Structures are given as structure tokens and as C-alpha cells.
Amino acid sequence: MSDEEHHFESSDAGASKTYPQQAGNIRKGGYIVIKGRPCKVVEVSTSKTGKHGHAKCHFVAIDIFTSKKLEDIVPSSHNCDVPHVNRVDYQLIDISEDGFVSLLTDNGSTKDDLKLPTDEALLTQLKSGFEEGKDIVVSVMSAMGEEQMCALKEVSPK
């Protein structure tokens, strides 16, 4: 044993952006990483075991941020990466001129690093509701270091 002191740089808690799951256990409605993108599975088909071994799972999935359709074929006994997907609701405070929104978190602080949604229907609904002075709660989905608004609802004042 040496008497050297070891200094480590501080970082986050080390929570991984994904976790492994056997391909045969991933179901429709679940999540999977295809080509490095977090996706929601919309279709799964499994082929029978062939002459050379493994049954294969064919995944059809939609990227949760870009809505692009992606496909992958993986042997059912192999592990796939599954993203940690979180969905949090925030109250809308303000929409800035530069395309960012100001949101109120549960603990009373503000979150100002989120851009307006790219989905036209959601963007229109958000802006018109805000201009009419309605109380709006937005759902923010986050996975693999990305965040984006995915839904909103108007709440009536109590």
C-alpha cells in the first residue's frame, strides 16, 4: 500500500443514462435506444430460432424527441440499452423573445433553460393559451441528457 493521497474530481452521482435489458423482455409501449436515440417502442415482432441459433426481435420505435421512426433487429437473448425516461410537470411563467420558456418548479425555483417545442400544434396551443392569460402546466420529458416539452394542459384557477 502506498501513502499517496488520491484526489478525485467531483462529478454527478454517476447515474447512467441507460440500463441494460434483455431484448426479448422489451414490449410495445416500452423504451429502447436505437442508433443512440431514446425511442418509444410501437411494434415488436420476434422471429423463430433459425438454423444458426438465436430468435431475433425486430423493433419499430419512434424517437421521443424528433418523432422519427427507427428500426432495429437484435437477437432476443442479447441486451439492449433502455433509456431512463422522466416526465415532470411545470407551470408556465413566461415565454421569452429568444424562444425559451420560464417554468416554475415544485420547489418554487424557476427553470429557464428549455426551448419552445418544435411541434407546431403544441407551440400554437402554448402561445395562444399564454396570450389569453390561462394557467398552463407543461409536461417535460427528459432522457439521455435531452429535455423537451411533450404535452400541456390548461388548469383552471382554484
From TrEMBL:
UniProt KW keywords: Hypusine, Initiation factor, Protein biosynthesis
Biological processes, Gene Ontology terms: positive regulation of translational elongation; positive regulation of translational termination; translational elongation
Modifications after synthesis and translation: eIF-5A seems to be the only eukaryotic protein to have a hypusine residue which is a post-translational modification of a lysine by the addition of a butylamino group.
Disordered: region residues: 1-22
Pfam family, one: IF5A-like_N
CDD domains: S1_eIF5A (cd04468)
Highest taxon of source: Eukaryota
Function comment: Translation factor that promotes translation elongation and termination, particularly upon ribosome stalling at specific amino acid sequence contexts. Binds between the exit (E) and peptidyl (P) site of the ribosome and promotes rescue of stalled ribosome: specifically required for efficient translation of polyproline-containing peptides as well as other motifs that stall the ribosome. Acts as ribosome quality control (RQC) cofactor by joining the RQC complex to facilitate peptidyl transfer during CAT tailing step.
Annotated family: Belongs to the eIF-5A family.
Protein name: Eukaryotic translation initiation factor 5A
Lineage: Eukaryota, Viridiplantae, Streptophyta, Embryophyta, Tracheophyta
